[in-house]
Write a structure and sequence with these properties.
There is one protein chain. The protein has 302 residues and is α+β, with helices and mostly antiparallel strands. It has two helices and 19 strands. The longest helix has 28 residues. 18% of the residues are buried.
Amino acid sequence: MRKLITIVLTTALSLSFFLNFLTKISANTLTPAINETFLETNKRSYNKVTITNEQNKKISVTPKVYPYSAKDESLINGDQYIFVKTDLETFDIEPNSSLNINYEIIPPQNLVPGTYFNLIVFEEVDNNPILKQQNPINTSANLSQLIVLHITEAGNIKGITSDFANITFEITEKGLPFLKPTKIKYIFQNKTNYVLETEGEIQIFKIQGKYQPQYIKINKDNSKLYPNDSFEEEIEINNWNIIDVISERKIIGRFYNGLDDNFVTKEVITENYILYLAGITFLIFLLSLFIKSLLDDNKKKN
């Protein structure tokens, strides 16, 4: 009997902890979830985050700042990567109300221009030792704000130049009109200290004729590209026109970094299919001669 009571109590306490955790996840909200800013190393910015308590009881939170690696989704050791300054006090939020918490972003002098991340975790203070959360990082994402800082060079608005990537752009398969698509492949390597987002489009123009150009967006998943990483994509061009048989096509890749208006263009030319058409015509001619010869032989035999 005593063993049964122990199991029941343990189950009840575990269920209470689980429900309490879910309540914290669903009841508290934070806006904005991400704060992205550009700053020179000798500048600072003033920001705020709003936490809304949708519970029927007062809650208390304490902000703590952690250096963060967005690529690895893990914390970084070392205070030299911390650029967010906030008061380490406990803030009380009344039931069904919101509170603005202010903080500063101050780029350290020892950080070179590039993209850096901090995570502000708002730990909820709970004096109940049974329900106390042990790991603040594993609390709800609503109770954490990601700060994305792009440190720029003085005199440059965003610190990005047109030489932000190594890009290769090539035709991998020429294709056949109306039968096989033309395939284009590009490789975009980030050569900066910034986290970039490959943006842009592939433009297909007819060198002859008055047909409308074709546009294909690249990186439709909006994948982030971290320093020294590469992004590769192969794109199929399926639209054909009869003019493509005798006309070359100009294919242009227009690549942006996702941070400013600078871009890089690459260009390739697809050859026309006149030789291919001539070869097919010649084969048809030879085939017709062969068939005619067979028919003539049959007539002679008859």
